[in-house]
């Protein structure tokens, strides 16, 4: 009886250990010098610091199933913002081998973004990735014209991830799935310009969505 009880307890502890397992993320930065790095999960308010050494940035104890955005800060103080552009859910794609995203697809998606009416007066795609079935974009939204209760030359600025599906031959935005990356109300245009020029946005299709039992790896795209 004692041996049976100990066996069950050991099995239970092993299950808990598996559930509590945290994964790692390694980013190959090549020759790009980095002063610091942090990863922020989509459902988290606190960032996980990364270790910078030997041409890589490493994050440990990341949560399985979470989608992370990473901020890399070079010595000049500017930021490389690596944004997760994997699909918003684990649903399998409509076709196993979709065609590449064509110029016509990109033009149609861009038109959708531009034509959406909202409080913002500028909707711009920063980066678009995907295939002929579905796509994800980093979208910059700006209100720099007059609005109610505006003080001086205040500017409202947001950066979000939007998702799009090709439905019956036409593209449509996936509703209720926007993911907000930045949301700032600047007091002056000078502050707005300074912040925008200090950031470079890089969409990552695979590697920032952490999969249970797998240690993720991303190669930092070469910067122009």
Separation of termini? 68 Å
User: Count of helical segments?
Assistant: 3
Q: Any idea what the radius of gyration is?
A: 21 Å
Please trace the helix and strand order, writing H or E for each element. HEEEEEEEHEEEEEHEE
Task: Provide a descriptive summary of the structure in words.
The structure is a single chain. With 224 residues, the protein is an alpha+beta fold. Helix content is 18%, strand content 40%. The strands form three sheets. It has a five-stranded mixed β-sheet. 22% of the residues are buried. Residues 10-19 have low confidence and may be disordered.
Keywords:
globular, 224 residues, five-stranded antiparallel beta sheet, 3 helices, alpha+beta, five-stranded mixed beta sheet
Topology:
Layout: H1 2-20, E1 23-28, E2 36-41, E3 48-49, E4 51-53, E5 56-62, E6 68-73, E7 79-84, H2 103-115, E8 122-130, E9 134-143, E10 155-167, E11 170-173, E12 179-186, H3 189-197, E13 199-204, E14 216-219
The gist of it:
The chain is an alpha+beta fold. It has helices at residues 2-20, 103-115, 189-197; strands at 23-28, 36-41, 48-49, 51-53, 56-62, 68-73, 79-84, 122-130, 134-143, 155-167, 170-173, 179-186, 199-204, 216-219.
């Amino acid at each position: 009886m004692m041996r049976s009880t100990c066996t069950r307890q050991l099995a239970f502890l092993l299950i808990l250990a598996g559930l509590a397992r945290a994964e790692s993320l390694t980013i190959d930065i090549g020759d790009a010098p980095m002063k610091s790095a942090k990863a922020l999960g989509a459902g988290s308010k606190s960032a996980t610091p990364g270790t910078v050494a030997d041409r890589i940035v490493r994050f440990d104890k990341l949560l399985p199933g979470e989608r992370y955005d990473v901020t890399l800060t070079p010595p000049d103080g500017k930021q490389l913002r690596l944004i997760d552009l994997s699909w918003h859910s684990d649903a399998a794609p409509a076709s196993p081998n979709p065609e590449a995203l064509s110029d016509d697809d990109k033009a149609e998606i861009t038109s959708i973004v531009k034509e959406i009416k909202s409080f913002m007066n500028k909707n711009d795609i920063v980066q678009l990735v995907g295939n002929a079935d579905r796509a994800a974009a980093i979208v910059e939204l700006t209100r720099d014209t007059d609005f109610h209760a505006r003080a001086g030359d205040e500017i409202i600025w947001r950066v979000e991830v939007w998702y799009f599906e090709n439905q019956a031959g036409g593209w449509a935005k996936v509703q209720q799935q926007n993911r907000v990356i930045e949301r700032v109300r600047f007091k002056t245009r000078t502050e707005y310009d300074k912040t925008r020029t200090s950031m470079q946005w890089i969409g990552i299709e695979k590697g920032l969505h952490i999969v249970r039992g797998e240690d993720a790896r991303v190669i930092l795209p070469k910067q122009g």
